[in-house]
Specification:
Blueprint: H1 2-13, H2 37-76, H3 79-118, H4 131-145
Length: 146
């Protein structure tokens, strides 16, 4: 019954059935996407400097606005004006905290890079000898470490 309904709909809308076409899937290679560790570090450092500069610019503008708001609050002696000043001071402090967080994140990234560079893996170690020789070697290495 479903086939009959589909055939009726095909006739109604003028849909002709075509044989499936065989398509060849070609795997494309993206060149230039992977970056060397040095390039990633340069990009990260560039981004860090840009973010830092933007945050410093925001703090300077907020301080100028805060000084103007302080003048208005002092001249008007209005409680709402002082409230605005305190909120501006808090927002400025938040941006300064973001600068400190940015420094911490950069330091963490540098530590991770060092860990990745120092990570050496040895696979498929082969020893030709008896288990007694292996035990003696392990005992000697424990004596040297201890």
């Amino acid at each position: 019954m479903t086939k009959e309904v589909n055939d009726q709909l095909d006739n109604e809308f003028g849909i002709t059935k075509e044989e499936p076409v065989e398509v060849e899937v070609v795997k494309s290679e993206l060149k230039g996407i992977k970056k060397a560790a040095g390039e990633v570090t340069k990009d990260t450092e560039k981004d860090y400097k840009y973010m830092r500069a933007q945050l410093y610019d925001i703090v300077e503008k907020m301080q100028e606005s805060l000084n103007d708001a302080m003048d208005v609050a002092h001249d008007s002696q209005h409680p709402r004006a002082y409230e605005v000043v305190f909120q501006g001071a808090k927002a400025t402090g938040d941006v300064v905290d973001k600068i400190a967080d940015l420094h911490k994140k950069m330091k963490d990234l540098e530590v991770e890079e060092v860990k990745v560079q120092q990570h050496n893996t040895t696979n498929n170690v082969f020893m030709s000898g008896s288990t007694a020789e292996l035990i003696n070697m392990l005992k000697e290495s424990n004596k040297k470490e201890g």
